[in-house]
């Protein structure tokens, strides 16, 4: 149960994380400009636990998602309240294995409930250590966020693509990692010193596609895409019929 | 052939498009802060032409992607040059139906070739017109970007998800639209008055999955995800074996 309150929004003039830049250029002889942000590439990992036949995801409160819902609530007050209510029901329905996230912030008539900003995601991290390979960074994230120690040789590259092509254009590389209960070395949950408050959640394989397409549960496209990739490419090995 | 030159990067202090904000809040009693950006939700559309059995994508020069490659070239000069070379080969290999994008900017020893910033994407647009439904916005984008006039009743909602959960957290909704040559009313290409220089490209259905997983061709995850979705959900109707 996330408890979010005392919310205050201020302009951000000199951020350590967001550094807007403008690039001026000529495209086919026409002068153009574009505002963008420098950012790091990233890796994400679809983790499948072969002991419990569950996917391992992370769930966390995302301030940017929450503020987006707050904006929506301001512009469409009735719709947004109904949607938030449905979302809580939806999250509770899907799986007993998932801890529900809810609880309203102070002044809930104005601020949406905290669950509106809680997002299900693949285990992921920024490529901000130039000495490490993508596989080594992925391995570290699996360990820190989800508590499994997996050798890099067991990571299978799924593919790579561009994210946020309008603003950041960073490259994301997605991996697949099979783990078992034997690889478990800690509870995961991220690095508290980095301010991470990550909950590790299990999605049973037989519920995965229902979860993926349940729009009441906020999630990234990476979750939906990778579940479908698994069903097409890995499920036959586990003698599971693909129902996508 | 995109020609990009006279590139200049400057700090962006007061952008019309990028407005960084900071939110201060209490999470479970702990004081936290997060820098984020307000942005619009968006829609994207997987377009399938039933006359030619091709997917219809858009291809455009994305300054943010290009600058990302420039950063990479600076930090890994040898690797990036090799990758850019491979990328051009890759783009040429995949399909004759796709026009290749290349050509180096001025000072090509420092700047990557323009093709490093040219990205294949689903037809898409921002949800910035409060009076229109998501379907109506999707319909407008299909018309403006790709030149097909499709009634909103023919749009099938695939799903929705969160993008850029760290920075923007916006909601993206993906649709599927079947078009035929009879729906074609213009060449598409975007709104020149909005500075859009969009090339409409066709990806033949039988090449789609090879295209999707060719990492040498810069593309968004939406392209890969939606092609796979089509193969799982729509291809049987066209008597096509799914090879994903």
Automatic annotation (TrEMBL), chains A, B:
Reaction equation(s) it catalyzes: UDP-sugar + H2O = UMP + alpha-D-aldose 1-phosphate
Cofactors that this protein relies on: Mg(2+)
Subcellular location(s) of the protein: Cytoplasm
GO molecular function: metal ion binding; UDP-sugar diphosphatase activity
Gene Ontology annotations for the cellular component aspect, listed alphabetically: cytoplasm
UniProt keywords, alphabetically: Cytoplasm, Hydrolase, Magnesium
Disordered as annotated region, ranges: 81-111
Biased composition regions of type Low complexity, renumbered to the chain: 92-110
Function, in words: Hydrolyzes UDP-glucose to glucose 1-phosphate and UMP and ADP-ribose to ribose 5-phosphate and AMP. The physiological substrate is probably UDP-glucose. Poor activity on other substrates such as ADP-glucose, CDP-glucose, GDP-glucose and GDP-mannose.
Record-stated family: Belongs to the Nudix hydrolase family.
Name assigned to this protein: Uridine diphosphate glucose pyrophosphatase NUDT14
Species annotation: Neogobius melanostomus (round goby)
């Amino acid at each position: 149960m996330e408890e979010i309150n005392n919310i205050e929004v201020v302009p951000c003039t000199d951020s350590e994380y967001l550094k807007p830049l403008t690039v001026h250029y000529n495209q086919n002889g026409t002068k153009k400009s574009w505002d963008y942000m420098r950012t790091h590439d990233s890796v994400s990992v679809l983790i499948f636990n072969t002991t419990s036949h569950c996917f391992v995801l992370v769930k966390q409160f995302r301030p940017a998602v929450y503020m987006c819902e707050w904006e929506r609530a301001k512009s469409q007050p009735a719709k947004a309240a109904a949607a938030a209510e449905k979302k809580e029901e939806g999250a509770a329905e899907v799986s007993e294995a998932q801890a529900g996230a809810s609880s309203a912030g102070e002044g809930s008539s104005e601020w949406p409930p905290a669950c509106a900003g809680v997002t299900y995601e693949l285990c992921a991290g920024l490529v901000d250590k130039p000495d490490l390979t993508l596989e080594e960074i992925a391995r570290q994230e699996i360990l820190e966020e989800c508590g499994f120690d997996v050798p890099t040789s067991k990571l299978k590259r799924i593919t790579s693509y561009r994210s946020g092509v309008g603003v950041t254009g960073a490259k994301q590389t997605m991996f697949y990692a099979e783990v078992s209960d034997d690889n478990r070395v800690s509870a995961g949950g991220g690095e508290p010193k980095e301010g991470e408050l990550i909950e590790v959640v299990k999605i049973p394989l037989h519920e995965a596609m229902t979860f993926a397409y349940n729009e009441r549960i906020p999630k990234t496209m990476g979750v939906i895409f990778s579940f479908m990739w698994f069903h097409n490419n890995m499920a036959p090995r586990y003698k599971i019929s693909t129902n996508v």
